[in-house]
Amino acid sequence: MTRNVRQTHNEQLRDAEVAAEYLSDALEDGDTATVLMALRNITEAQADGFAGLAARTHLGRESMYKMLSRTGNPKLSTLTKVLQGLGLKLKVERANI
Question: Which of 28, 31, 50, 82 is most buried, judged by most C-beta within 10 A?
Answer without folding.
Answer: 82
